[in-house]
Fold Catalase.
Amino acid sequence: MLTDNAKIKDLSRDTIHPTPKSQMTTDHGVKMSDTDHWLSVSNGTDVGPALLEDQIAREKIHRFDHERIPERVVHARGTGAHGYFRVFDDRAKKYTFAPVLTDSSRTTPVFVRFSTVQGSKGSADTVRDVRGFAVKFYTAEGNWDVVGNNIPVFFIQDAINFPDFVHAVKPEPHNEVPQGQSAHNNFWDFVGFRPEAAHMVMWAMSDRAIPRSLRMMQGFGVNTFTLINEKGERHFVKFHWAPELGVHSLVWDEALKLGGQDPDFHRKDLEEAIKSGCPPKWTLSIQVVAEKDEHNFDFDILDATKVWPVDEVPLLPIGELCLNRCVDEFFPETEQVAFCTSHVVPGIGFSNDPLLQGRNFSYFDTQISRLGINWEQLPINRPVCPVFNHNRGGAMQHRINKSTVNYHPNREDEVKTVPPLEGGYTEFMEKVIGLKQRVRTPKFQEHYNQAQMFYHSLTPYEKQHLINAYCFELSHCDDERVYKRYTDLLNKIDFDLAVTVARKVNGVVPDKPARETYPKRDSYLSQAFFAPKEPTIASRRIAILIADGFNEIEVQGVRAMLAGAKANCFLIGPRRSKIYSEGQAVGSGTGLVADHHFEDQRSTMFDAVYVPSGSEHAKTLMKTGRAIHWIREAFAHCKSIGAIGEGASVVHKALDTVEHLQFNLNRGDDSVTSSYGVVTAGTYNVNSAATDTLKIAPG
Ligand code: HDD
């Protein structure tokens, strides 16, 4: 696997490798003999006053006092990884001359940071929220940042509304509540007043906002950018990332529980996948619209609250992103990485999308308060190509320019601008005529068509989840002006949706639809569209529930097969120590050491559960409330459950209230039964039974 690229080599200049032989020094390099006792005056019996002269203690405390920097004003909670990007061939050459998008002989290093938007740095990973998907490409022509989300549209159309939107969604000003969620008066108040948010709110209430994994979500550049080709022609473009593993979500109950059981669920999942040899991959596709076709749509293609339906503007897959290396240290890499939508490379440009225009100002600005004016010199942010210019000074300047001149032009003929044909960035010459005014043009004033299209493109279960989410969130609003206004607005999207939600939350129940239904549908909008090409259980977490007396040979066999399919298996038992196998006396003989006990890990953290055979083990599990709860909860969350022999009896006991489930309870009957994702086999058979279990496991 290619994990050593130009950026990793570049970072190695600043990477320190402490060893047991490393000697501890002060920051000014003097070796230290004691860092555990503050220098004080003592007579050997009594504690005396501490001395300020202790430079070692002072330095330690000073450094500690200033460890924190301001967290990001939004997207504070995040996790990142290194990787690479490669295009398949030069098919994008028709649209751009940027080598990063056209030269298949290149491997471009990337750093990706995923994030939630609302919560603080220490909030939980699985909250209902939009996920940030920010990609920094370290190209030979300079850094290119695609600062996107896992949802293709945005809440507002014009960047000037961003501070209002963020104030409204963040914890309320009087009591700093709530953390990591939009279920509060201010958010719903704001979006009730701004119908342009209706479409994005639908997405935020859908399963997209509770992804199973950062590796199983799409990414979108959201804004409309432009591509310029060698002939000087310009196309509008949207960027799409599609995960190799398909798009999958948690169910709400899981997301809520994980928030407490494992607030780091997503960041640990990313690390586990990379370290276990399953680096996540995404395909980059572009949608392009020629300049001449800009106005051929019933929406404005520069409006970030709209998608470009794929049947109108097809996707062109052009390359692959792979994240194959975890960071060495969180703060210098993931915390200090800084993205700017304004950072593009030759062949890529902006559009007049009013949200993008404002973003292009905001990102550089925020890095100044977060990291200081020289933030681009930080190791994680610096380009892998040479940087020369006459920008000087500023706090924390690292570069030493060996020159007598620092201006342009100069008598030394040093550091000159570069003509466009030799690689200098040049803006596309766009004719612009207009009156200076504060406006929203007519097409920017239609807000419900695509909200309807999204809703009506979902599968029935996605719709149900979305309705549940509206009910949950609006029930958390206790100001009736807020929930009445919003339920009233919902009727502009769908009558049945509005009636159901309004009845549940005491909103305005409509008696007829507020408008005609927009007829378009787009199956691409449902996440069901994104099943993986090849069903796989690679990197999925499978729990094997065992107690003393379990069938070890069977467990070893099934575990080997699951490992062969690259799943991550974990033994869960009554204690985290040896669990003795069938026929062995407890306390002696063979067995396996459980990775976790029933209480410290819960079914929510796994994708599937398997209960092996073994009569004593089965008896114990049946008597263990937590083990029974494990199986019930996994079933309720639609996880795959596999069981063999007496293990099937345990599953049967746990699920005895579920109608229509069929089980194979007779040991000796080696046929396989499957019902509602529960797969049971009478006996363990390397060649048939367990193999069938494996096939069905992804659910
Ligand atoms: Fe933003 C961070 C994505 C609109 C201003 N934004 C930030 C990050 C992502 C996005 C992924 C985290 C970057 C990281 O990991 O460091 N933002 C978006 C998307 C938007 C969007 C997809 C709509 C298309 N943002 C937006 C607007 C503004 C900002 C309209 C301001 C006018 N965003 C910021 C910011 C942040 C930020 C305040 C906070 C930290 C940072 O930039 O580096 O400047």
In short: Residues 688-699 have pLDDT under 50 and may be disordered.
